[in-house]
Amino acid sequence: MAVFRDLAALRHWRQGLRGSLALVPTMGNLHEGHVSLVRLAQTRADHVLVSIYVNPLQFGRGEDFAAYPRTLDQDLAKLQEAGCNAIFTPDDSVMYPRGKRDLSLVMPARSLSKVLCGAHRPGHFAGVCTVVAKLLLMSQPHLLVLGEKDYQQYRVLQRMATDLDLPVQVVAGPTQRAADGLALSSRNRYLTPDERGLAPRIFAALRELAQSHGAMAADLAASAAASLVQAGIAVEYLEFRAEDDLRALSRVEAGGRWFIAARLGSTRLIDNVGV
Ligand code: AMP
């Protein structure tokens, strides 16, 4: 497994590659969710490149950029075991050699990026689009493999690829969960034991909501959010939206998806479930 830290080495490897390439971008601290994407990528491309980079551009003020877990040695061992071909682990001087203050940014489509997480994390999706556009231009993959865990991010990046005519196919793999339903996330490690005990209620609520075909989404959301708040889970948003363009849908119907962001103590978790 090749490990590249700088752009010249990555480009040199890329130029000599025959066959198709899939890119799986990550921020490291890898778990079974990330590994499932590597496996999906292996079924769809001849070579798999995983990038590991905690992108400062996509964190807002007061968010967990400094605390975000960085576990490179364990990550490399997991990727080696998964049979990954190559890893790109740039640092800030590789990704943003002229600094971040006066950078050309990729602006995501408003309709997709100003709702849900975008409404609560200003600038987040511009940071995501900018770093992923750079990773795509650096590695020139045929396939970009993302997780449904971050469903809005998937749709924002898919739209970016379309709007910028990037020659890449964007696919998403299903969310991997703990046995009790909690979506695997690097941020789960911030949870106290009590919070970890409460956290599966988030997925349980989504699963129940997804079964209420034909009902008014806003009414269902209000009562589900009230139950979660009662249990000690602060709901940032709980909304039913169309999978393709994230427009709000008033009734629970096929083609829609429930989206939630919630806080347990200081930890912010997101999840989503299709109906
Ligand atoms: P991250 O390292 O959190 O930036 O995530 C990197 C990629 O892994 C993104 O495409 C995520 O959507 C995906 N991912 C994160 N958690 C999961 C999960 N539990 N199941 C499937 N994919 C995931």
Write up this protein.
The chain is an alpha/beta fold and 275 residues long. It has helices spanning 7-15, 32-44, 72-82, 92-95, 110-113, 117-120, 124-139, 151-163, 193-198, 200-210, 217-231; strands at 2-4, 21-26, 47-52, 86-88, 143-147, 169-173, 234-242, 256-264, 267-274. A 6-stranded parallel sheet has the order 1-4-3-2-5-6, with helices on both faces. Strands 7-8-9 form a 3-stranded antiparallel sheet, with helices on one face. A hairpin with a 2-residue loop joins strand 8 (256-264) and strand 9 (267-274). Helix 7 (124-139) packs across helix 8 (151-163). The radius of gyration is 19 Å and the shape is globular. The mean pLDDT is 98. Adenosine monophosphate (AMP) binds next to helix 2 and strand 5.
Helix/strand class: alpha/beta
Tally of DSSP β-strands:
9
Q: Helix tally?
A: 11
Bound heterogens, unique: adenosine monophosphate
Order of strands across the widest beta sheet? 1-4-3-2-5-6
The largest sheet is: 6 strands, parallel
Beta-strand portion reads 15-25%
State the end-to-end CA separation.
39 Å
SSE order, one letter for each helix or strand: EHEHEHEHHHHEHEHHHEEE
The coarse silhouette is globular
Mean pLDDT: 98
What gyration radius follows from the Cα positions, in whole Å?
A: 19 Å
Helical percentage: 25-40%
Poorly predicted spans: none
